[in-house]
UniProtKB/TrEMBL annotation:
UniProt key word Metal-binding: yes
Residues bound to ATP: 59-61, 65, 90, 169, 174
Protein name (Swiss-Prot/TrEMBL): PP-loop domain-containing protein
Annotated Zn(2+) 2 binding sites: 297, 300, 309, 312
Positions contributing to Zn(2+) 1 binding: 3, 6, 22, 25
GO MF assignments: ATP binding; metal ion binding; transferase activity; tRNA binding
Natural source organism: Natrinema pellirubrum (strain DSM 15624 / CIP 106293 / JCM 10476 / NCIMB 786 / 157)
Amino acid sequence: MDCTRCDEEAVMHAAYSGSHLCADHFRESVEKRVRRRVRRDDLVSHDATPEDPETWVIGLSGGKDSVVLTQILHETFAEDPRIELVGLTIHEGIEGYRDESVDACVELSEELGIRHELVSYAEEFGVRMDEVVEDDPENMAACAYCGVFRRDLLEKYAEELGADLLLTGHNLDDEAQTALMNFLEGDVEQIAKHFDASLGPLSERGEQEEFVPRAKPLRDVPEKEVALYAHINDLPAHITECPHASEAYRGEIQQLLYDLEENHPGTRHSILAGYEDLASIAADEYSGDDGADLQECVECGSTTTREVCRKCSLLESLA
Ligand code: SF4
Ligand SMILES: [Zn+2]
Ligand SMILES: [Zn+2]
């Protein structure tokens, strides 16, 4: 099958758009979608100047998503002195998993010539995820601990690195899953928070002064296309799955979305587009409630809604 835009052979077919693309046109199409998202989300602040550039910290795990995001942002802003990129990698302490992906992060950062920071649960919290899973004092899934720890470190280091923006490599499949899960859980306030935390144009989000704003510029690109982009560009991405991956509900939703997408191409796009519109309305509705009950954790000083933050209480029960 030929490319829809030229005579070269197509390397992919997107059922949701009907197009067949060759390697060059596919590459161009992915990059275009990411740049359009950067514009639509208003990510480049009007205050950014070459003298006073913005720092964008990218959560760089070494998996295909964050590697592709880093590569495309680098190409987009390499010649733009208003934006400085920093890769931030978190080592959870998972045998046979994170070591290789850290290598991929180091390799990519060196290749692109961007600053790279590596932090670990072991150094920061004195625990490794492998031990946490063994102990499991709260009788929870591994990801429930790991998510709290990762979020804490991303926020702490984004702050320390003087980040204006914290970017993560969530793709269309990830975000459509989260949208559907939030919707099925029926928690509208959670949906409003999701909008203010990481969706929608920066200029339209509710006040969140305590946190570095987040952005997900890869969320228009389906997971398969991210993987193909990494492969075609020969990027150093690490693909093995975490041995503790345990989000069973997300797995169910993922399967449901595969089936829907197969029979009704474009479902992921329409779920996310509709969800973002609704989330924006919900965020307006809940604005003002926000931040009222925020305080500083008495143990570590991070911003929380309780006396002792979730991370500190988990560390306490692991001690
Ligand atoms: S899959 Fe779960 S345990 Fe593994 S790195 Fe991700 S959040 Fe942590
Ligand atoms: Zn082509
Ligand atoms: Zn704390």
